[in-house]
Amino acid sequence: MKILLTGVTGYVGKRLLPVLIEKGHEVICCVREKRRLTLHRPLLEKIKVIEIDFLDDVEPGIIPEDIDAAYYLIHSMSTSQDKFDALETLTAQNFRKHLEATSVKQVIYLSGISNHGQLSKHLRSRRKVEDYLRSEHYQLTVLRAGIIVGSGSASFEMIRDIVEKLPIMVTPKWILTATQPIAIRDVVQFLARVLGHEQCYNRTFDIGGPEILTYKDMMLQYAEMRKLKRRIYTTSLISPKVSSYWLFFITSVSYKLAISLADSMKSEVICKDNELQEILNIQPITYKTALKYAFLRIKQNLVLSSWKDSMISSSLGLTLSDFIEVPNFGCYKNTKTRKIADEDKVLKNIWTIGGEKGYYYANWLWKIRGWFDMLFGGVGLRRGRKLPSEISTGDALDFWRVLYASREKKRLLLFAEMKLPGEAWLEFKIDENNVLHQTATFRPRGIWGRLYWIATSPFHFFIFDGMIKNIATQEA
User: Of 280, 302, 303, which is closest to residue 197 (Cα–Cα)?
Assistant: First the structure.
């Protein structure tokens, strides 16, 4: 099928795109600015990109006439509170006008669950968008979701920030509001499988996970998974406006988004039925399972989990390296870059790191770190490495585990198995411009993890600087 996809730069759209391509569809992506579309090159080569702003007056001919289906994944939660309602209305109306000039058969819209008697401003707006998208020209399928759980989603990152930073919390009463969270991989499954499904034409479905939880429940389950002790107290003295300030200062969300979230969290978000699960034979995963997926040591796209043992998709032309990414949210990073003259020499240096060779700078400090690790029950540096000049994915290397190693891709990614109040990654990568990128990433677990990074930062400054300098210049 020929599919029009909007919102591809957003959280859900980015995850839906490779799934559609993997299923053999031809995808046309609508973006306001092409430069904002950051996708892997093999993926970009599989799609067509149209630059269009649905706030502008409708111009005929921008969207191809022969599309079969379209996804409407445009939301304005982070825009001005005074204007977002009007912006969402105009965007939906213009989208419908564009689509009515094509041969599209189905439009799929991801909305929000809105069964509660008192809806927030944003949920009321999304209900209006459903009405503006309806047309006699095509079949509309509306999926209403609540809290989407996945690394990078606004709700998940908000909960992560709050729980990781605050051992004791005095919170607004909205954290006692009931909701039905759903994993991002389940949302993508629902979106992909209603496509072309005639039983879903001109119908609206709620989609949610198998549990009804309060925001407090979700925060405490998150704390349990991260092995953090948290105390949460609620009060009715915190107004919605103060709530938004509280979210803004405690979490990484913008102030506009904080206002939207605080407003939305006052309304219960519970599915009215599970009919679509039965139609599509989908069994959503639990909140705790969704958390485990969100905190995998490597982030994997839904497509990757469907690949066979080779972990390679023939239709996409992508390899495992294209989907292994070090986490970004809630992490501290030390990033160094250096232009190199001899790629082969530098790759040899990278591939001989650790073991007898050491870490190219201040090896005595690395040895002290290894001793401390053993003192606290860790593996230390005693494991060494299997071979002096070869590394394979899955190998143990001192107190690291090799997550990915490919000379062809010019990339080595290590995960720390030492005792830490968090998780750590060390990555080396040479880009197409012969620039060596060295990135140390640390995702702290609670306040002790943050204090650990602050305490060790002075050492990082010269250790990692010396390391990349010697890797780039030392003879192999």
Answer: 280
CA distance 73 to 107: 11
DSSP class per residue in 256-270: HHHHHHHHHTTS-B-
**Is residue 431 a contact partner of residue 339, using CB atoms and an 8 Å limit?**
no
Alpha carbon dihedral 398, 378, 292, 234, in 10-degree steps, equals -140
The helix (run of H) or strand (run of E) holding residue 394 is none
Residue with tokens 């780039």: 472
pLDDT along the chain (476 residues), means of 10: 92 90 92 80 84 85 92 72 75 92 95 76 81 94 92 80 86 87 94 96 96 94 92 82 72 66 75 92 94 72 38 51 73 94 94 92 91 87 86 90 90 92 94 94 89 92 94 83
Contacts of 125 (CB under 8 A, 6+ apart): 76, 84, 85, 88, 89
Yes or no: say if 143 and 207 are a contact pair by the CB < 8 Å rule: yes
Please report the DSSP string for 297-343 in residue order.
SS---HHHHHS-TT--BTTTTB-GGGT-----TT-EEEEEEEE-S-H
